[in-house]
User: Fold Ectoine hydroxylase-related dioxygenase (Phytanoyl-CoA dioxygenase family) from Armatimonas rosea.
Amino acid sequence: MLTDDQVEFYRERGYVLVKGLFNKDEMARHRQALHDLAHRLYVETNRGSDATWGAARDYVEGGKTSSLQHCHDVQFYDAGLARLIVDERLTGIAAQIIGPNVQLHHTKMFIKPSEKGSPFPMHQDAPFFPHENHSMIAAIVHFDDAPLEKGCVRVVPGSHKLGLLPHDSSGGWHVDPELYKVEDATPCPAEAGDVLFFSYLTIHGSGINSSPEARTTLLIQMRDPLDPPSIRTHESRGQGMMLAGVDPSCCTTKPISDDHSDNPVHKVNGTAGSCGEVTMGGEVKMGGGMAPPTMGG
Ligand SMILES: O=C(O)CCC(=O)C(=O)O
Assistant:
């Protein structure tokens, strides 16, 4: 659990790195599971794709090609990873930040390969899946050490207080790279077992992995079940699972479908709407007039 000082740190800075939340042996087992999953995706079935953002390619020195392996919703691929996302060491802290009820939005594995693991331009996660009350947080679980040279995550402390900022949609939604340089942001070097929690409004990104070892992480995005999406976007089959507490609105036992007309949270002016029309209170809310990206985040 977080100490009072850590809770205060999070409230002020929009992130907190929790050291040694998981032990190194269990991380090594999950790391192997994630690399086995990547092997199934990228080698055995050829279903994997490179997740490098278009805008990130410019940051790689000498125009070298970088790459990034990814998989959304890993809990559908490996039972051990399904158990990890409901582990109370993780969900207990999420509940301290969000409140007693914690609902899954999605999970995302990233493997930044050695020598050439792609960087992430600085961005908020909010434009990818805006919500009314901004309860959404990410927890990045580290399965191996992520020092500076491996492209550890970097944050802009306090940026969660700036609200939803304008983002450039070209090559993945990012803030102005002249205003927010990756190298100027605060690095959060981590060891296997450390977990970085941050708000979806906290500006973050990461550098290239130039080390001889892959960087392996799982990002778990979570929200208060009573915080409705401002717009229907970035839906996935894992969305709505309860990780802690209950869903007081009782609306998440249904599979995601285009018909939310009987859903007490997603009111659609009495009718079911299609993606992009569905609103809360009859109003389309897209911070700064932005259209939502369909990928990434
Ligand atoms: O894993 C990283 O280095 C950053 C990931 C990230 O920024 C994201 O998924 O939004």
Summary: The mean pLDDT is 86. The domain at 4-289 is CATH 2.60.120.620 (Jelly Rolls). Residues 110, 120, 125, 153, 204-206, 217, 219 surround 2-oxoglutaric acid (CB under 6 Å). The chain has one domain: 4-289.
